Amino acid sequence: MTGGAWLDEVRGVVDAELDRRLPPDHAEPTPLYQALRYALLAPGKRFRPALVMAAGRWLGLDPQDLLPAALAVELIHTYSLIHDDLPAMDNDDLRRGRPTLHRALSEDVAILAGDALQPMAFEWLMECRAEPERRVEALRALARAAGPAGLVGGQVRDLHPPAHESGVSADDLLALHRDKTGALITAAAVLPAVLAGDAEAVARLTRYGQAVGLAFQITDDMLDVAGDQLLMGKATGRDARQGKTTFVTLHGIEGAQAIAQQELAIALSQVHGASADALHALATFVVERDH
Amino acid sequence: MTGGAWLDEVRGVVDAELDRRLPPDHAEPTPLYQALRYALLAPGKRFRPALVMAAGRWLGLDPQDLLPAALAVELIHTYSLIHDDLPAMDNDDLRRGRPTLHRALSEDVAILAGDALQPMAFEWLMECRAEPERRVEALRALARAAGPAGLVGGQVRDLHPPAHESGVSADDLLALHRDKTGALITAAAVLPAVLAGDAEAVARLTRYGQAVGLAFQITDDMLDVAGDQLLMGKATGRDARQGKTTFVTLHGIEGAQAIAQQELAIALSQVHGASADALHALATFVVERDH
C-alpha cells in the first residue's frame, strides 16, 4: 500500500460522511452551514483522519467506531486553517486552491465558522464507540492538542516569537512546531490507542506522531522553498519573503532533508507488523510528497 | 439570600480558582497567558458560574465537584465576548469597563486567546467529579450550547438575520436569543443535573434556564435603552443607533418588562424548597439588575 492510496481511501469515507452530516438543505437559514460546507468539503488531503484510521487499522479496531474521531481531528484542523488565514493573522487569499473563507464569504462568518467547529469536534468525538472513561481520556487528548499547550500555543509563538538577541534558535523552532503542527498530528495517531485503552500503543503512537509531525513540518518548509504554487494550492516562497526562520534557513535544504529522513526512521521503528502498513505508508508519504 | 450575595460568594471562589490556574509567572513566554489572564480575570458578574453553583446547591451536590463545570461555562462565555468584540464583529473598544482584549493587546492574540478558551473549557469540564458517562453527557450539553445550534448559531443569525420583507419578527428574535444567550445560560443551569444523572432535574432546570436566559436578554435590551454606560462597563444606546430589533423596539419598555416578569414567574415555578434559594435569587436578580 502507498500513502497516497490510503489517503484516497480515507478521503472517500471522510468526505462522504462530512457531506452527510452537513446537508446543503439544512434547516438553518444562515450563512453558517454554507461556511461550514465550504471549509470542510474543500479538497483536502485528509492527512489527519488518515492517521486516525491508520492507527486504528494497526490496532485492529473497527473503522466505523473510529470515524467520529477522524472527523473530530479534521474539524479542529479546518478551524485552525480558517482562523490562520484571517486578515489579522496570515492574511491569506488562497487555501486548498480556492479563496479563503473570509474572502469567499465574510470575515465575521469565517471567525464564527471556526468557532463552531471546535465544539462540533468535541461533540462528534464523543460518538466513538468506546467505554465512557476512554472517551473522556480521548477528549482530554484532543483538547490538550488544540489548546494553549498545543495548536493555539504554537500559533501564538509563531506570530510572537520569544525575543532573543540571537533570533529564533533550533530549539525554539522545534518547540514551536511540536505545538503548532505536531500536537494535532500526534493526537490523530494516538486517539485510537487512547480509545482502546492500550497504554503501550499510546506511547508508541506518541513517538510515531511526534516524528511524523516534525517530518511533515520540515517537508512543508522545503516545499515553501521548492514547491509549485499550483500543486500546493497556496502561496509559496512566503517564508523567505517574510524573513522567517525555518528548518531550511537553519539547516539548509540538505540538512533539513536529513532531519526529515531521521524522523521518518524513528516513526517507522515504532510500529511493526502487517497491520502497520498504512502507518508506514503515511510516514513515508509525508517526506516524499510534492504538495 | 439575595442574588447579589450569591454572585459575590461565587465570584470569590471562581476568581481565586482562575487566578490559581493561570499563574502570572507561567512557563509559557508568550502573550497568550497574559491575554487569558486579562480576559478571564477582568471584573465580571460570574453570572453563569453562579447558576452552575446555585443548581448544584439545589441538588445537594458538593460545590468542589462542580467548580470545574462553573469555570468551563465562564471560559466559553469569555471566549464569546472576546470574539464578539473583534473589529469584524461588534468592533467594541470597551468591555467590563476596560479596553477590549484586541485593543489592549492585538487582534491576532485576541482571536487565538478566544480559540484557546474553548478546548480549555471542555478539558476543565472533564475534571468534575462524576461518573465518566455523566461527564460525556455534560460535555455534549456544553458543546451543543456552544456550537451551531447554540451560541455561535445565534451570533451568526444576529449578524446576518434571515431576510424577510417584514423585518425581524418576534419569533425570529426569540429564536435568536434562545441560541445566542439562552443556550449557554441553560447549559449552566442544567450541567449539575446532567452530572448527577437526574432526568427530572434536567427537565426543570432546562425550563428554568430558558426562562432566565430570556429574562436576561430582555433586561439587557432595556438596559441598552435606559442603562448607565458607567455601570454597564460598555457602550449603551447602540441598539437604537444601529436600528436593531430588540424586545424593546418590538414590545416597548413596559411590554418588555411584562414579558421579563412572566419569564421570572416561570423560572421561579420550576424549583422549590429551601435549597432552591440561590436559583430563585439569581432569577430575581436578572430582572432587577441595573447593569
Quick overview of this protein structure:
The first copy, chain A, contains 14 helices and 2 strands; from the N terminus they run ααααββαααααααααα. Chain A has helices at residues 3-21, 31-40, 47-58, 63-84, 101-104, 107-125, 132-146, 151-159, 170-196, 199-226, 229-232, 238-241, 247-270, 277-288; strands at residues 94-95, 98-99. The mean pLDDT of chain A is 93.
Layout of strands and helices, then pairs:
The structure is a homodimer of 291-residue chains.
Chain A (H helix, E strand, L loop, with lengths): L2 H19 L9 H10 L6 H12 L4 H22 L9 E2 L2 E2 L1 H4 L2 H19 L6 H15 L4 H9 L10 H27 L2 H28 L2 H4 L5 H4 L5 H24 L6 H12 L3
Antiparallel strand pairs in A: 1-2
Walkthrough of the structure:
2 copies of one chain form a homodimer. With 291 residues, chain A is an all-alpha fold. The first copy, chain A, has one domain: Farnesyl Diphosphate Synthase, CATH 1.10.600. Chain A contains 14 helices and 2 strands; from the N terminus they run H-H-H-H-E-E-H-H-H-H-H-H-H-H-H-H. Chain A has a two-stranded antiparallel sheet. Chain A is globular. Chain A starts with a helix and ends with a helix. At the A-B interface, helix 2, helix 4, helix 6, helix 7 and helix 8 of A face helix 2, helix 4, helix 6, helix 7 and helix 8 of B.
